[in-house]
Amino acid sequence: MLRNHILKISGLLVLTAVMVPAFSQDAKPDYSKQIFSLAKPVQPPTIEIDVTDAPEVKPWAEEVRKLAAEWFVNIAQILDTDNYKPPKTVTLTFKKGIDPPAYADGKGITIKVEWIKAHPEDFGIVIHEMTHIIQSYNRTPRDTGWLVEGIADYVRWWRYEPETPRPHIDKEKGSYRDAYRTTAAFLAWAVGKYDRQLVRKLDGGLRHGNYTADIWEKSTGKKLDDLWAEFIAQYKF
Ligand SMILES: [Zn+2]
After folding, report:
1. Whole-prediction pTM value?
2. 94: which DSSP letter?
3. Ligand 1 centre and the CA of 40: distance in Å?
4. Of 70, 187, 201, 225, which is most buried by a Cβ count within 10 Å?
5. For residue 223, what are the contacts with CB-CB under 8 A and spacing of at least 6?
């Protein structure tokens, strides 16, 4: 299962788009939007595991340690990480009785023991949290939490496990600001239709403290609300 995922991502990372925009002689095509450019591979941190609270999950933790090291490099290439300095160590701590299934902070990732016992197939949760480790945005404008979570779920659901069923999105009440899988599906659609570099550009804005909604418009030629309306009209339920 791990090997399949690795093959899948190496295929994805070398992917350049096959969509070639129609153009006339006067309008030069902008091929840069059709190419998924890669950041330089980063040196992955040492992944440590702490199973003091639940030694019985060690085999699962060891599996995920390998996955986390491989995917750290992949995720860094998906985001705008050219001058990024990875931490030397990321610790995966397995704890009983915490509230969320998992969370990331400055020290690493904490994973709820009861959650992985109930969902031993859920390696993707670590991919989402590892994305947060690499995001480590410290100057994000207010009111961008939906996008931070949307990018983490984009990496998880559209790059790591793209075979999963698509989320249901409420056509009337749904919004790109719903975060998580809804924002992720919107991002994936806009990446495919308009700009393979969109996620990198959004991540760059959040990373370097200059995110504004203009990034969407510059990248796609559409205002964010119009882009959402177009997505909702086309989204297959
Ligand atoms: Zn998250």
Report:
1. 0.85
2. E
3. 25
4. 187
5. 213, 216, 217
Pick the closest to residue 228 from 185, 168, 197, 181 (CA basis): 185
CA of 20 to the centre of ligand 1 (A): 34
Could you read off the pLDDT of 100-118 as tens digits, one per residue? 999 999 889 999 999 999 9
Q: Does residue 40 fall inside a structural domain?
A: no
Write down the mean pLDDT value for the chain: 86
> What's the domain range around 129?
1-19+45-136
**Quick check: is 178 in a domain?**
yes
CB-CB contact of 182 with 171 (8 Å) = no
Question: What is the 28 CA–ligand 1 centroid distance (Å)?
Answer: 40
Q: In the listed set 121, 136, 151, which residue is the last one of a domain according to the structure?
A: 136
| End-to-end C-alpha distance for the chain, whole angstroms | 28
CA-to-CA distance for 199 and 156, rounded, in angstroms?
A: 13
